[in-house]
Amino acid sequence: MKIVSTIEQVKNLVNQWKSAGQTIGFVPTMGFLHEGHGSLITSARQQNEKVVVSIFVNPLQFGPTEDYDSYPHDIERDRQICEELGADVIFHPTPEEMYPKDFYTYVDMSGLTEGLCGDSRPGHFRGVCTVVNKLFNIVQPNRAYFGQKDAQQLAIIKQMATDLNMNVEVIGCPIIREEDGLAKSSRNAYLSSEERKAAQIVSKAIFAGEELVKSGEIDAEKIVTTMKNIVDSEPLAKVEYVNVVDGLTLKPVATIKPQTLVAMAVHIGKTRLIDNFIVE
Amino acid sequence: MKIVSTIEQVKNLVNQWKSAGQTIGFVPTMGFLHEGHGSLITSARQQNEKVVVSIFVNPLQFGPTEDYDSYPHDIERDRQICEELGADVIFHPTPEEMYPKDFYTYVDMSGLTEGLCGDSRPGHFRGVCTVVNKLFNIVQPNRAYFGQKDAQQLAIIKQMATDLNMNVEVIGCPIIREEDGLAKSSRNAYLSSEERKAAQIVSKAIFAGEELVKSGEIDAEKIVTTMKNIVDSEPLAKVEYVNVVDGLTLKPVATIKPQTLVAMAVHIGKTRLIDNFIVE
């Protein structure tokens, strides 16, 4: 497995593979890989002849008060994980390689970027769209894999790929959880041991919401109230939002239907965690 | 030569060509083709194995008071021109094919879209970037050809392709002129015969500016004043701007250097004409 840091190196490899008619699976990450990323790499490995993982903490998608500078990293561990899971290449560029001095273009979206995480993270999804657009053009994958945990991100990237007629299939993969239910996230590393215990409340609320839906509840308001009350029972946890929206358009819905997305963001101390479920 | 109207048809053709290792040249147009477009198609024909011409009057790049509804068209004449010049396919989609109901994404730029035509046409270059991005993804050309007449558009598209790591070489081709000097433009069709005579003043000002530079003048202000005075001598003409800018960044410069762009927009009656020259 190779680690390359320049766009030119990736394009050269990709062009060789494409000339040979080989399919490419792509897993874009910000590194500090966990089993959630692992499941994406495994899917990519099963469905494509070549697999590229990118590791890039994208400054463009962090707000000025967010955790860009402290985002966790461990490139050596990431390398081992990618190697074990059968990736062919890690693309690990510098910020300057991705955003040289005279960089002016961005990709943005109306509609789906408002609401949910978009409200508290202005500019975040513009940063996500721009970097993923660039990465798709660099790696030219047949398929790209994203976690369902970042449900809004996944919906937005699917929409971008459709709207801009990009030649890539965007595939969402299920949320991977710790034994106690907490959704795997690189940001879980920020939690103190006390906070880590308290963080269980997030998935508890998610599971309770799911149960309520399975029991036949279709009133979004009631589901939201139940989930908020559960989180509020944990003194270290503070709900940012619990929203019930259409899974594709992300527009709020009052009544649960198949493909409805129930998504939440919760702060545990200084750490912001997100989780969600999709109605079957 | 084929005319196709769906994105799927173009992608199918393009994928066949790419599988066979053939290079693709692309000429995006709004139709009502003239010798300026013709020169682009000819260049594409000489430099690529396959040539695609798109004909699409892009609603997204017209302001609410602009000429979207009256933009001239003659698809049968366009077809003949493309056929004679050896194009392989015309892509002629409907607005609904390019912008279906749930369309949310756009591509925009900071910096280069301000100034020059950007000041009087807010949103214009966002519309241009978005449609060209889509067309590049649909046609997947090796090379795409644009006229130097739309100098700001050319600089912006080059910047977009660079910033987003698009796999296409953007090629600018020289301005083609009528016998009396008027730069070829589909919008010249709007001019009455009296206005058509008056429109000569635009290229006269351009040629005078060029002469001044050739004679050694490097003061941008003096060149602008000379050119404005020439246009002002024509009662039917009204200067919108004469600007001297860096040819790549489009930032104003006070002193002429190689690659400086001298660009102007002039209104003749209700018709807006643009012209420019680049310092060698």
UniProtKB/TrEMBL annotation, chains A, B:
Keywords: ATP-binding, Cytoplasm, Ligase, Nucleotide-binding, Pantothenate biosynthesis. (R)-pantoate binds at residues 61, 153. It holds the Pfam family Pantoate_ligase. GO terms for biological process: pantothenate biosynthetic process. GO terms for molecular function: ATP binding; pantoate-beta-alanine ligase activity. Homodimer. Belongs to the pantothenate synthetase family. This is Pantothenate synthetase. It comes from Ornithinibacillus halophilus.
